[in-house]
């Protein structure tokens, strides 16, 4: 269940000059500005609105925005204008943007690495492959020999419904014994067709 909704937070309270319209006490009026913000799982996403309210400290009468006495409207409006909503009400959005930026950088880096590994294959490279570009099941090919522009690979005997199958499938016993050859050209075509989605070079050698 996604928990989302709106919250309010007190931002600022300031005195308002003049006398209370109800009890006539001088200098007893206070106005408050609140920040209303949307949240998901209590992480603030963005602010949307600055409700205001006013109260008399002497008689404790209070007014919300719609029922402000005429003399209070202008000073309260001014206070609202000069009150900035706190930046933290944007923190969830900031996190999302940072996360997307990080994913984009990581994605670009990974695809550059894949290209470099395909161009200069090494024994032990592992290709994540699937039968078609919309197949949810992935398997692995492992490079066992490099012969110029051609690699010999063994095929993993298993498939898994996960685009990062290496953790589950990459153990020696899960690969077949039979090798077959793939040229760099064929690998590039598989990559362009979305059949070869990742190249991993495990740093164990
Ligand atoms: Zn009062």
Can you write the helix and strand succession as a string?
EEEEEHHEEEHEHE
Q: How helical, in percent, are the residues?
A: 25-40%
Percentage of residues in DSSP E strands: 35-45%
Number-wise, the strands total 10
Catalogue the ligands.
zinc ion
Distance between the termini: 45 Å
Instruction: Output the radius of gyration.
Output: 32 Å
Largest sheet: 5 strands, antiparallel
Residue-averaged pLDDT: 90
When the domains are counted, the total is 2
The unreliable regions are none
| Structural category | alpha+beta
Total helical segments:
4
Give the overall shape, derived from the CA principal axes. rod-shaped
Write structural notes for this entry.
The protein is an alpha+beta fold and 205 residues long. The chain folds into two domains: 4-94, no CATH class; 120-200, no CATH class. It has helices at residues 70-81, 91-119, 166-169, 184-192; strands at 4-16, 29-40, 43-47, 52-56, 62-64, 126-129, 139-147, 150-156, 175-183, 196-200. The chain is rod-shaped and about 95 Å long. The structure holds zinc ion (ZN). Zinc ion (ZN) is lined by residues 20, 22-23, 25, 28, 56, 58-59, 61.
């Amino acid at each position: 269940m996604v928990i989302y909704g709106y919250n309010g937070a007190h931002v600022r309270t300031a005195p308002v000059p003049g006398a209370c319209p109800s009890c006539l006490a001088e200098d007893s009026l206070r106005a408050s500005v609140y920040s209303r913000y949307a949240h998901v799982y209590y992480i603030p996403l963005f602010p949307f609105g600055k409700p205001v309210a006013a109260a008399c400290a002497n008689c404790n009468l209070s007014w919300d925005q719609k029922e402000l006495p005429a003399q209070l409207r202008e000073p309260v409006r001014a206070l609202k204008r000069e009150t900035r909503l706190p930046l933290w009400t944007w923190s969830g959005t900031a996190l999302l943007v940072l996360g997307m930026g990080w994913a984009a950088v990581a994605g670009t880096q990974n695809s550059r690495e894949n290209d470099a590994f395909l161009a200069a294959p090494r024994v032990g490279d592992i290709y994540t492959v699937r039968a078609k570009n919309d197949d949810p099941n992935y398997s692995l090919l492992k490079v066992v020999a490099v012969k110029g522009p051609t690699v010999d690979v063994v095929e993993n005997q298993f498939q898994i419904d996960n685009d990062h199958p290496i953790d589950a499938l990459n153990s020696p016993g899960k690969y077949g014994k039979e090798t077959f050859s793939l040229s760099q050209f064929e690998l590039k075509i598989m990559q362009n067709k979305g059949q070869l989605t990742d190249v991993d070079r495990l740093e164990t050698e």
